[in-house]
Amino acid sequence: MKLKNIKILVLAGLVSACAFNDPELEIQDTNFPLRMEIDEEGADLADAEDFKIGIAFADYIGDLPTNEITLTYTLEGEGDFTGVAIDEVVYEYENDDDCVWEREIAFTSSTITIPVDADMGTVPEEFEIVVAFNIGEDAPDGGFELQITGIQSSDNVLFSDANTFEYEILENDAAGKWLIELDESTFENFKSVFGILSEDLAETAFADTEGEIAIEFEFEEMKFEIELTEQEEVSECEEGEVETSMENLVIEIEADYDAEDGELVFEGSYFDEDGEELDFVLEAEYVINEDGDMEIEFTSIIGEDNYEDGDELYTGSQSFLLKKD
Amino acid sequence: MISALLLTNVLYAQEVAIKGKITDENTSEPLPGATVQLENATFGTVTDVNGEFSLRLQSGTHTLVIKYLGYDDISIVITAEANSYIEIPLKELKSELQAVTILGSLQGQQKALNQQKNAGNIQNIVAADQISRFPDPNVAEAIQRIPGTTLQRDQGEGRYVIIRGLAPQFTNMSINGEQIPSPEAGVRFVALDAVPADQLSSIQVSKSLTPDMDGDAIGGSVNLITRKAKNSNLELQGTLVGGYNQLMGEPNGQGSLLIGKRFGENEKFGVLVNASHFYSDRGSDNWERDDEELELRDYQLRRTRTAVSGTMDYRFNPNNEIYFRGIYNSFTDREWRRRYVLKPNADESPFEDNEIEHMTKDRFEQQDITSLNLGGKHYLPKFNLDYEFAYSRAIQDTPFDFETVFIAEPDELSTDFSNSDFPTFSTNADFDYLDNSNYEFDELEAGNTFAEDENITGKINVGVPYQLGGNDGLLKFGGKYRAKTKSLKVINNKYEWAGGDVTIDGQTGDFTGDLVAGGLVDDNFLDGKYEIAAAPDMGKVVRFFNQNKDGFELQTEDKLVDEANESYTATEDVLAAYVMTDITFNKLQFIGGVRLEQTKVEYNYNTVYFDDEGDLDEIVNEDGATDYTFILPQMNIRYALNSLTNVRFAAGMSYARPNFESIVPTQEINIQDAEGTIGNPDLEPVSATNIDFMVDHYFGTVGVLSGGLFYKKLDNFIYNRVFETTSYEGVDFDRDMELTQSINGETADLFGFEIAYQQNLTFLPGALAGIGVYANYTYTGSNATLKPEEGSDDKVEIDLPGQAAHVGNLSLSYNFKGITARVSANYAGAYIDELDGDDKVYIKERMQVDATASYQINSKFNVFAEFLNITNAPYETYLNSEDEIIQREFYSWWSRIGVKFNF
Fold first, then answer.
1. How confident is the model at residue B96 (pLDDT cuts 50, 70, 90)?
2. Distance between alpha carbon A28 and the CA centroid of its chain, in Å?
3. Cα A59 from Cα A71, distance rounded (Å)
4. What are the strands, taking DSSP E only, across chain A?
5. What is the ipTM of this complex?
6. Which of A41, A116, B628, B802, CA to CA, is 20 to 30 A from B785?
7. Distance, CA of A96 to chain centre
8. pLDDT at position B453, please?
9. What's this model's pTM, rounded to 2 decimal places?
10. Cα(B821)–Cα(B281) distance, integer angstroms
């Protein structure tokens, strides 16, 4: 064997005996960029006149950019939504005294320029694009799509790969606002179902309420609101002006929902007696009667720790009439 | 007071200090542990690890008697003059060993046993050439051959040493007598697989302490001694080894080279450099159980060990020398871990799904230990003086630690553990768990950590000779100061996919596992019991990440919480002082005294607070401190029934400092998994009272039969307790969390006996004279009382965690005409590894069988072959009883062949 071959062999041996101290590929994640995100879906009732689409920075560490950011976009409607256009782009500035100012962001037919707010010293953390429909109330059809097609920034900022918002008309028959008119018996029945999910409700007497429950089904989310007679002083500061008023306390129960073929499924979370937050699933059946009201019957609630037969949080057949608001 | 009395008896005669060295006549190898006595007197000494001795004698002529196991006793007349240096060669007992060819193969035993026999305390020695008799590539594995030691293993390789059933933090680890810091974050103990065995001249395991030794060594004290140049002949030693790992079908290799020489007039200046490198491509196949969950883990590893050590010493004259020693060890571990985690929705909860996680981990870890010692030894007419300044640093650098998870949700998934050897699982028929397109991307973790531990130490020892009733003694006192800083920095980035469909290699769709699968696929995983598919290929995942950062969402809260919780810095100042005497009354040697050690610890850490929703609320940087002082009396008595038999008794106190991660109130909290680990600033150090009784008888050729009893009483022993809570120290977790915390138990008694026998059966006729036996067995029992659980008065008694009842070695060897063959078995019984509420996790008993064979070609060359883990002994753990196995990990066998040269 020639000396050269021996050298090559020795060298190969040494190399093969080395530590594998490099990754197959270096990850490029030092100074991970800030990322802007857009709501991906939204829907509203057929008679809605506009819709607010949120854009915000995803969770970040450090400071927001200190130079303006320009987004390019396309906005396209179909059906009755062909004429959609951005009406305004706004964000809120809140000072240390909780006073809120709404401020506008400049836009064109293809760009939105996010400014550096003089008070914040940075671009706003989030803003809303208000898209106006101007389509009238006669059974509109179609939807629209807003896509962020590019971002220009001298800072380390990206726009999410999921860059498109899609709007559709909220068409399920539960959608909208409803009211349950309460008497003592109805309230106690309601409490027997929902008192399990809300300690505040369980401790409330009918006499403490304003006598009705407001229910609103929006896009994938709904809530019950029980207005109480007890009031509290609320101060609000908008555009530098402080307004103080007395407002009724409200008990809220929120959940995600799915309504299909007369069946409603609510999913949310509640706190058990130990203060632990647990998930629940509530099932109900409903029909819309001739008067356009909803007759709803709650049949079961199961919890994360209470789902086996006989161990459910609630089983029964409490029914309520929800009047269209 | 005793010391003061002794001081009054100090007599100074017209003495001269002489120094000498005992060597092998043929090889000029130094002989450590030889007794050097004045004829017809009890006065004498024992040679040190370099074969050297010092004596103070009246000037004039004296007769010295030298005794060394395996060698002829000799008497030699010397003339004691100031600064004289004598080298005394000894002749081997050739007549008794003529049936076998020695050529150095027994020298290791000789050296070890001579040192052991003549040591004032109870200790075991593993000499360098003894290490090579066993196929032990790292220090931990070499130590396992010593009676009463077991190992905690990682990937089949010994890593941490357990002495007499006490967990690794109870053992003090030193290099050249100075504690080495731990490269690992949070702990004190050192992973000894970081140190190649061939860097050392010997390993000294002391099971009883003397006051001049560090007192934080309840289990024992392990001292790794590096080499030193012997004489003016150029010493050139080396090894070249190649091997094969059966499981991975990959090679391993090792090379080492030692060069040493003394220079100048009277060989005043010595230089020795020793370098070695080892690499191994290893792996393991493993399954693990957690309740109804089953994990299949396929490991692939590249490990390297690189070390360089050197010693420079300068003898001004035979009685005064200074030295500089250094050692640098670098251990690297590249690990690819590919696994399936099968999580059946066993309770059929509508809130949960069946899940199978398909994961790949890719990380590199480097542990470096550097130790530098600068010191001097002076053997002066009226006193001895030695001093040392030491700097040591250990780091654990993990520059990248990636893990990616893809998840499938089959409609049906069940696991079956009725076969405790190999559990089974099943899914719905139309779901194929091997089809990577069923797995959707869940997350990518990309982190790095850097742990650092640095010691700066200064120490001084003074020895004053004295006579008491015609008996010679040494009064010794000294002090030591050590400043330690330890820190951990953590970067932990976790990314989830927030984008839409992905396009990889022209395929567009959901971000599923098939788009990034690749890498090694083990087609005989766990001997073909399970089938596994290609796992996510980290290179492809990272490439996709780099190109699509706009689709990944950094989990900022997880990052802030993890990094704040785990990072900390700490300092520890230790001040120690001692006074002791070493005196021999005829056949009785007494070493006793007292040591004081004061420890002050300060630390800085973060506390993370969560709001009512369980989200990050605030991170607060905080400081803490603790201090403690121990006064540790020590006593060792050795009574020589005759020149070959000792009766020993030792009693003393020692302690163990808590690990840093145990006292610093840092938290490793995983809200998502509802579990975590938290520190305990109220944790007390463990204190212990130790009693040993031992009889050791040595055979005139080479061998020993020894037996002993030991007892330890531990106060405040430390164990891990697992408990459930929703909050801790003002931190509200907003859910039930299972937290693990180190706490003090009440007391623990540990007792046992050990017996050891080793002998070369040279008295047998003919070829049978080549048979050798090396056997030891240790029984350890313990009784530990845990603290009652909250709301209960019931005290629970258990075996001490880490304590195995039965530990032993059996090795049979055969030497004949230059050929040595050996089969060795190492057995470690079951022991508790962890307490989890009322549950106990045990490491199951394990016996590893290895074989070696070597042939001494001539005095310069030796070829050898080694086979390790011949029976493919698995690492197994079980929960409460052996019926409930929760882990089985297999490594298969590996082998090496090589050549050693010694010029």
1. very low
2. 31
3. 19
4. 34-38, 41-44, 50-57, 69-79, 85-94, 100-104, 106-107, 111-114, 126-132, 142-152, 157-159, 164-169, 176-181, 209-217, 221-238, 241-260, 263-271, 277-288, 294-303, 314-324
5. 0.90
6. B628
7. 25
8. 95
9. 0.88
10. 26
Tokens (6 digits) for B510: 């959901």
Half-sphere exposure of residue B52: CA atoms within 13 angstroms, side-chain side: 17
The answer to whether residues B817 and B101 touch, using CB atoms and an 8 Å cutoff, is yes
| B360-415 residue pLDDT tens | 999 999 999 999 999 999 988 889 999 999 999 999 999 999 999 999 999 999 99
For the segment B111-153, what is each residue's pLDDT rounded down to a tens digit?
788 888 888 899 888 877 666 655 556 777 778 778 777 777 7
- CATH among 2.30.30.60, 3.30.230.10, 2.60.40.2030, 3.30.300.30 for A34-169: 2.60.40.2030
Give the whole-angstrom CA distance, residue B661 versus residue B665: 8
A309 in reach of chain B (CB within 8 A) = no
In the CATH scheme, what architecture does the domain B1-122 have? Answer: Sandwich (2.60)
Q: Which chain B residues have a beta carbon less than 8 Å from that of A158?
A: 549-550
Domain boundaries, chain A: 34-169, 176-324
Q: What is the mean pLDDT of residues A297-321?
A: 94
Q: Tell me what the pLDDT averaged over chain B comes to.
A: 88
Nearest-angstrom CA–CA distance, B505 and B104: 63
Hey, where are the domains in chain B?
1-122, 585-684+727-741
State the pLDDT at residue B95: 44
What does the pLDDT look like over A171-215, one tens digit per residue? 888 999 999 999 999 999 999 999 999 999 999 999 999 999 999
Beta-carbon pairs below 8 A across chains A and B: 120
- Given CB atoms, is A275 within the 8 Å cutoff of chain B? yes
Q: Which of B365, B326, B327, B364 is nearest to B195 (CA)?
A: B327
For A116-133, the DSSP string reads: PPTTTSS--SEEEEEEE-
Across the interface, which of A19, A160, A281 has its CB nearest the CB of B332? A19
Task: Report, at the CATH architecture level, how domain A176-324 is classified.
Answer: Beta Barrel (2.40)
More confident residue, B323 or A142: B323
Residues of chain B contacting residue A16, judged by C-beta atoms under 8 Å apart:
251, 253, 279
Hey, of B300, B351, B734, B737, which one would you mutate to test binding to chain A, going by the most A CBs within 10 A of its CB? Answer: B351
